[in-house]
Amino acid sequence: MAMDADRALVSRQCRRAVAGALVVLGVGCSASCISPSPPDPNATRDAAVDASHPHDASHPRDAQPGVDAGARDAGADSAADASPQRDAAASGDADATGDAGATGDAGATGDAGAGCDAGAGCQPGTPLLPEVLRNARDLGGIALGDAGAVVCGVLYRAAQPTELTAQDCAEFDRLGLRTVIDLRTEGERLAAPDSACVTWHADMTLAPMPVPASVSPEDYLTDLNEAASIRAAFDRFGDPAAYPILFHCVYGRDRTGILAAVALLTLGASREAVMADYMLSADAGMRVYPDSLTAVLDDIERRGGIDAYLQQSGVPAEDAAALRGQASCRR
Q1: How sure is the predictor about 115, in pLDDT bands with cuts at 50, 70 and 90?
Q2: Which of 72, 95, 113, 276 has CA 20 to 30 A from 289's CA?
């Protein structure tokens, strides 16, 4: 798992150097910068199931999206999309203030010129493409302290984007994604591959985390400590040319919720704001486990805050700074 994530970093170093040069030259990161690549006509869905991790619908974590909410409550994370509205961020929850676990002044600063005009763009908790994706939402609009918010259209979380129809793909493609981060294991990816159209115009980054089979605090902490995958995700967060970014696991709740928590704390969100975002998975019909996410937030605080956690995980400070520059704004 660690080898998959670390190997993925190597091929991106040249791209990052090019992206840095484009930023210096003032080239933007809008969807229009993407050179469309045609869909692979030979792409097929590989339904092979990893023999070491059979997907049994009788197991709550492995239940498929068509079953009832109680059966889909065990190890899911989310895939998300990116929209071209990255400069129009909505105001978040004004009561969600503070800097839970975050050190420094990450939250109140951000992309120069990126304002957070109320009502412009997204609102926290609004489902994203509900007819196409499960448990998907834009992180934009979430409050960062009392003077900022997450920029709309740059960071998305969702469940796995599988079995998309041609019409679904057309809707999905309008989001303008440039990067998809897949937090699933190899066995999960083989059993339910992302639809081919998901990466027509986006790079795929593999950042596998262990399946949180019992969704316990211990399971969540195991995933939080998957340092190679955290580094792989932040390698993309640290590249201005990688946005908009969607990250997902299976159901968009557990592993996706952990990465969302780390990203939001890095941006300066409070514990309350992070937990409120996590709990929105209940609106998608999923059981949620706030005690397990609380263990994650407590562990980050115990380590000395989000900056200390990132340093201990081997995340370069410039990657965290780039995330703040791309995804936070001032009101």
Answers
A1: low
A2: 95
Q: Which residue has the higher pLDDT, 260 or 124?
A: 260
Strands 245-248 and 155-158: parallel
Q: Which residues contact 72 (CB under 8 A, 6 or more apart)?
A: 60, 63, 65, 251, 285, 286, 287
Nearest alpha-carbon partner for 310 in 278, 270, 265: 265
DSSP for 88-149 reads -PPP--TT--S-TT--SS-TT--STT-B--TTSS--TTPBSSTTT-SS-EE-TT-EETTTEE
Q: How many residues does the chain have?
A: 331
The dihedrals phi and psi of 220, each to the nearest 5 degrees, come to -65, -40
Q: Give φ, ψ of 99 to 5 degrees.
A: -140, 55
Torsions phi, psi of 150, nearest 5? -75, 135
Radius of gyration of the chain, Cα coordinates, nearest whole angstrom: 18
Edge-first strand order for the sheet with 155-158 is 137-138, 155-158, 245-248, 179-182, 203-206
Find the farthest-apart pair of alpha carbons in the chain and give their distance in angstroms, rounded: 55
- pTM, two decimals, is 0.69
CA proximity to 80, closest of 194, 191, 3, 222: 194
SS3 (DSSP) at 150: strand
User: Any idea which residue has 């002044």 for tokens?
Assistant: 105
* Dist. CA 79–CA 162, nearest whole Å: 10
Query: Where do the domains of the chain lie, and which CATH numbers do they carry?
Result: 2-11+75-330 (3.90.190.10)
Q: Which residue carries 């795929």 as its tokens?
A: 204
pLDDT value for 67: 30
Cβ contacts of 152 within 8 Å, gap of 6 or more: 83, 85, 86, 88, 89, 90, 120, 121, 122, 138, 140, 141
